[in-house]
Fold this protein.
Amino acid sequence: MSDSTLHLAVALDGLGWHPAAWRISPADPTAPLSPRWWATLAGEAERAALDMVTLEDSLDLQSGAADGPDGHTDQVRGRLDALLVAARIAPLTRHIGLLPTTSVTHTEPFHVSTAVATLDHVSGGRAGWRPRVSARRSEARHFGRRDLPILDPTRLDDPETVRLIGDLFAEAGDAVEVVRRLWDSWQDDAEIRDVATGRFVDRDRLHYINFTGRWFSVKGPSIVPRPPQGQPVVAALAHSSVPYAFAARHADVVFVTPADAGHAAAIVAEIRAAEEVVGRTGPPLRILADLLVLLDETPALARGRRARLNNLASTDLHSDATTFTGTPGQLADLIQEWQRSGLAGFRLRPAVLPDDLTAITRALVPALRDRNLFRAGYPGGTLRDLLGLPRPANRYAAESTA
């Protein structure tokens, strides 16, 4: 695979990333509650040979407010569990990576570890996982274990807010460490399965992880044998220095939100510096830029769609990611320009599903191939293979032979 070949992912959420998407989507508003919907979207992405689809999730209803419900009754609310959706569509796909999101703030890492390992087995080595920090008080109140303050987005530099965010990401780091150790708690050859001798498992190749930290104390081993990839792909969404450091320590892929090519170059430099600071020893992070995309055959038609959506939502579209409105060819030009900033690829958020997804798969992807920026098919193998990430050695096997 050429070094110039981009990695492309698509982020799937409900009927699209625009809050009024459900008002103009040709799909039935109940479609996101059907497994057929997700299988259809994943199949469309796979036919274009995209690297992966990511599935959004949270522990609270969708909301535009900083914390808690926003009072809207004219926008989609409610979703299916992302991990369960990924497991359901895994047997219906063959090559594309499946990367669900889960919260690690209120979820036990043992449960997450077994679920993602199961997804990797079910998919034949195509699982990924995006751990998500849950900072909202409304999410915490579903569990009753802690009381988080309401975060004021205009005062993120307040010392107490800085401390809280630091703690939440430190807890997330411990959660990912526990998950990764549990994935290694079975060596690759722990299962013997010898009917003649009656030996199914070699107990010496199952390991206690004996993790004790501020937030978790987990003995192990896992109940699921080591995943086919050894370690499923871990991704993080990062907007600033604290999550950049988290990604540098714990992730394989990081999704970032630059405003332009210069900003993308600055983010890449900051992440590479963070890797140096934390002493990263594995492969460098694959850095993918997020773009919310609203596409049409002409720029005027694309602008018209956006205006119609904004009118239906009674507000302009706001997003943490840069919003691109234009033609697939113009988006290909932007991607080619931004790639020179050191990005490994892009994660595209379709404004309306399935319309903007099919514009990506049937118009953007051919335009990128015409520029020799994207491969024509799948080379085979696991999601790690697709991303150029080696299969990691089992830490406990390495310790036992050291």
